[in-house]
Design a protein that fits this description.
The complex is a heterodimer.
Chain A (H helix, E strand, L loop, with lengths): L2 E3 L13 E3 L5 E6 L4 H16 L7 E7 L5 H15 L6 H8 L2 E5 L5 H18 L5 E5 L6 H10 L7 E5 L7 H14 L5 E3 L7 H11 L13 E9 L8 H26 L8 H14 E2 L6 E4 L1 E2 L1 E3 L2 E3 L17 E8 L9 E6 L6 E8 L19 E7 L3 E9 L7 E9 H5 L6 H11 L8 H18 L9 E2 L6 H8 L9
Parallel strand pairs in A: 3-4, 3-6, 4-5, 6-7, 7-8, 9-16, 12-21
Antiparallel strand pairs in A: 1-2, 9-17, 10-15, 11-15, 13-14, 15-16, 17-18, 18-19, 19-20
Chain B lengths: L11 E7 L4 H14 L15 E5 L5 H8 L2 H4 L3 E8 L7 E11 L6 E12 L6 H5 L9 E5 L8 H8 L3 E4 L10 H8 L4 E4 H4 L2 H8 L10 E6 L1 H15 L5 E6 L5 E4 L2 E2 L10 H8 L7 H10 L2
Parallel strand pairs in B: 2-3, 2-6, 3-5, 6-7, 7-8, 9-10
Antiparallel strand pairs in B: 1-4, 4-5, 9-11, 11-12
Helix pairs in contact in B: 6-11, 9-11
Classes of the chains: A alpha/beta, B alpha/beta.
Chain lengths: 507, 303
């Protein structure tokens, strides 16, 4: 929650010591793609949660823009139903009525000049009626092909009044070249500081807790390096399939859907050096250094897979190639595992094993820091049979929290040692409901805080690595499908670890 | 402000009680109750305590203290030790009631427990409470002491408990003859960070008054419809922040802070709803350092 000392404390003695919540300036949030899934399932429930907690600016408006026919009343009814269905809080009529009064809708094609005029006129009228000062957040919840059209239309009508911020949903390009082209297009009309590339993983409390864990505890950072850490494992596993998104997924695959953004961001937060402060540039400067230092040692260090038929939670599910609108001979990967290295003083020769995929055995996002074994055991060999190395496990989702695996003596005669877990469960310690990532990120945009957003140079570094991996894939044609739905991926992923004398964490 | 989960309360409560007990009996009972949560092969309740919360509760405050605690254990997993002094019972012993409340952790098949220890201190046992509480403090976690009613200034029990406390929480609304007791409170400031729930309840109004700067700097009279504590703390705050000891207080008694006039002109109402009592206490349990602005306000209120 954004709290700050009153900025004018030196001039106003009464303000000193008052811990005031930072409140965003009056503004209009314009959502392009306002009738889509993201708006229904994430954005409007997030705005409702912010309204419930009185975190939205007192003077505020939301304008939905989409191709679907409709008017303000129909849109409000649609969004009301979305909030009732997807909000994390109980529905409160008074809160909704207040929010709905700020809700407007403009039905238009995105390349329609008449629609642009209507939007422009509405924004001007809202500025005047509500005193919004020309401040705008534009949220592009639309497919990438229409980014350019919208950005140009918005850019050409900028009149220099108020501030403007542009939220761009992934994918940020398809490869390095297209990412650079997209950034160049955006920067024709918007400055880099005005562009907020959203990666909703960074809005998750547990992802931010990685920074708190590392940089607010004196015990971890001294051992957070190659001297004490054997390797790191990052898992982003989903049990669901592509959920009807064949059009997108066939072009993206696991490497563009998850690896290029969420996974590399998790890795960057795990490996980065301590920033000097928690300002956007300090944090992102450190992340980009990690991304620049990343490499994978050889094509053999990257494994791809595609799921075949199998069972998930006892239900037989189709193979990827049997999903609707997926080519029968599709070579799109639904699984990627890789061994990566961060070439710097802290991490040299310490492998980061990462894996992500669809239709895996369960939904789980974890970061496991596996420490080196104790250098010498004074106990008999049998005493510590089965004892595993210490692992610090950060549960990003579900079961948000941190576990530390340690060896402990089994009660009784003699000396037997067994691995036990010390658990810190977020919900157990703080007993507060966790905000959804989009609540934090939308609010941060209104506040102008881009710390949890991806900067253009980070995106480029991420694509550099992905392009190198994809280029190597052009030289072979694996036998897909190569893992059954409901398992932990192809056998070659296990081989990747076994070659190094290691194995994926047991579950 | 931490927002509580909309939880229906504890999913299980294990009890133990005894008369004329030792502290070892209490510790043993706590361990046994916790072990019992793991019966039938279930994993034990997690004990993710964030503090030890001591409350000194003389007779008139028993029910209010229990009411304020309802929901607190759920929000701040902790060991709560309620001390009920009973100097005049004619006995010399400790009676104890121990409860282990287990709360469900969302999305996980685990429970987290809060421990509530009620100790009735008979006779002379009420004179040396620190020695009773010390064995029950959770190591390395902060100790909060909530003192119900007006503390017995200079008394041994107050002196002892403040000595083991990181933060003293009072509610000067519960005190008579204000502002005089504030003089005694200022003597405790060097020893323990102090929170006053009456002060916390003025925070929305202080933010509003701060927004009236710089015009408010020339205020001569502040008329406050509120509890006496809130009125004195607000005028103390204005005097200390503005460096003026000539600001006159006109107090109109009310059960809560209902309005403020500055030189006869009503100040606007602050936005939002006043916080619930449990939210106010909950917020105070999340502060750890002393509040020099409050301390200056208390000092100025007595001048």
């Amino acid at each position: 929650m954004a709290l700050a000392e009153q900025p004018a404390a030196q001039e106003n003695p009464l303000a000193e010591g008052l811990l005031l919540r930072r409140s965003p300036d009056p503004c209009t949030l314009v959502i392009f793609g306002a009738s889509g899934d993201l708006a229904h399932k994430k954005l409007m429930p997030a705005l409702y949660a912010l309204a419930l907690r009185r975190l939205l600016p007192p003077r505020f408006a939301i304008v939905g823009v989409a191709r679907t026919e409709g008017d303000d009343d129909a849109y409000r009814a649609d969004m009301r139903s979305a909030v009732q269905q997807h909000a994390r809080d109980p529905f409160r009529e008074d809160v909704w009525e207040e929010l709905a009064a700020s809700l407007h809708y403009v039905p238009t094609e995105f390349d329609n000049a008449g629609g642009e005029d209507r939007l422009h006129d509405l924004l001007g009228r809202l500025d005047e009626e509500r005193g919004l000062g020309g401040n705008r957040v534009f949220y592009l919840a639309v497919p990438p092909p229409v980014f350019s059209t919208i950005v140009e239309a918005l850019g050409k009508r900028r009149d220099g009044r108020g501030w403007t911020r542009l939220i761009v949903e992934k994918p940020f390009g398809h490869d390095l070249e297209s990412a650079r082209a997209l950034t160049a297009r955006l920067c024709e009309y918007f400055a880099e500081e005005e562009i907020f590339r959203i990666d909703h993983y960074l809005g998750k409390e547990t992802v931010q807790n990685m920074l708190a864990l590392r940089f607010s505890n004196g015990i971890f950072e001294p051992i957070w390096n190659r001297q004490f850490i054997d390797h790191v494992q990052i898992t982003v596993a989903e049990s669901i399939g592509i959920e009807g998104r064949a059009g997108y997924y066939e072009n993206a695959g696991a490497i563009r859907d998850i690896f290029q953004n969420h996974l590399l961001q998790l890795l960057a937060l795990t490996a980065m050096e301590p920033p000097i402060d928690f300002t956007p540039e300090s944090v992102r400067n450190e992340k980009v250094k990690v991304l620049r230092a990343l490499h994978t040692p050889s094509p053999r260090s990257v494994v791809r897979g595609q799921y075949g038929r199998g069972f998930v939670e006892g239900v037989e599910v189709s193979a990827y190639r049997e999903e609707a609108h997926v080519a029968a001979d599709s070579m799109t990967e639904t699984y990627v595992a890789a061994k990566l290295y961060v070439d710097n003083w802290r991490w040299a020769d310490t492998p980061f094993y990462v894996r992500m995929g669809k239709r895996l055995a369960r939904r789980e996002t974890t970061i496991a820091i596996q420490f080196k074994r104790a250098p010498h055991s004074p106990f008999e060999e049998t005493a510590a049979e089965g004892l595993r190395p210490n692992v610090l496990l950060v549960h990003v989702q579900p079961d948000e929290g941190v576990s530390l695996a340690i060896g402990a003596k089994v009660p009784g005669q003699g000396m037997a040692i067994r691995t036990v877990h010390m658990d810190f469960l977020y919900g157990g310690a703080f007993r507060t409901s966790m905000p959804e990532a989009y609540e934090r990120l939308v609010l941060d945009t209104m506040l102008g805080d881009s710390t949890l957003f991806t900067r253009g140079d980070e995106v480029e570094e991420q694509w550099l690595l992905v392009d190198a991996i994809v280029a190597a894939w052009q030289r072979d044609r694996p036998g897909f499908p190569n893992y059954a739905a409901g398992t932990w991926g192809p056998p070659s992923a296990d081989d990747l670890m076994h070659r190094d004398g290691r194995s994926w964490r047991r579950h | 402000m931490a927002q509580a989960l909309d939880a229906p309360g504890p999913v299980a409560v294990e009890h133990w009680q005894g008369e004329d007990v030792t502290l070892a009996d209490v510790s043993t009972a706590l361990a046994r109750l916790r072990a019992e949560t793991a019966r039938d092969g279930r994993p034990p309740s997690l004990r993710t305590s964030v503090m030890t919360h001591i409350a000194w509760v003389p007779e008139p405050w028993h029910e209010k203290a229990r009411t304020a605690l309802a929901g607190m254990a759920e929000r701040h997993p902790s060991r709560t030790i309620l001390l009920f002094p009973d100097h005049d019972s004619g006995l010399d012993r400790i009676d104890a009631a121990v409860a282990l409340e287990s709360y469900a952790v969302p999305s996980v098949e685990r429970t987290v427990c809060s421990e509530v220890v009620e100790l009735r201190l008979h006779g002379l046992r009420a004179k040396a409470p620190a020695s009773i509480v010390e064995p029950l403090l959770i190591s390395d976690l902060p100790v909060f002491l909530r003192w119900r009613g007006e503390p017995p200034w200079g008394a041994q029990e107050l002196d002892q408990l403040v000595g083991i406390t990181d933060r003293l929480i009072v509610d000067s609304t519960e005190w008579d003859e204000l502002p005089y007791p504030y003089r005694h409170l200022t003597e405790l400031f060097p020893r323990a960070a102090t929170s006053d729930i009456a002060w916390a309840r003025t925070s929305r109004w202080r933010a509003l008054l701060a927004s009236l700067w710089p015009e408010i700097a020339n205020t001569r009279t502040i008329r406050v419809r509120s509890t006496a504590a809130q009125a004195w703390l607000l005028v103390g705050w204005l005097r200390s922040r503005l460096g003026r000891d000539d600001i006159v207080l006109e107090h109109v008694d009310a059960e809560r802070l209902e309005g403020i006039d500055l030189d006869g002109e009503p100040a606007p109402f602050p936005p939002g709803d006043p916080p619930l009592p449990s939210d106010v206490l909950s917020d105070e349990l999340e502060r750890f350092t002393s509040d020099p602005i409050y301390e200056a306000a208390v000092t100025a209120a007595t001048e």
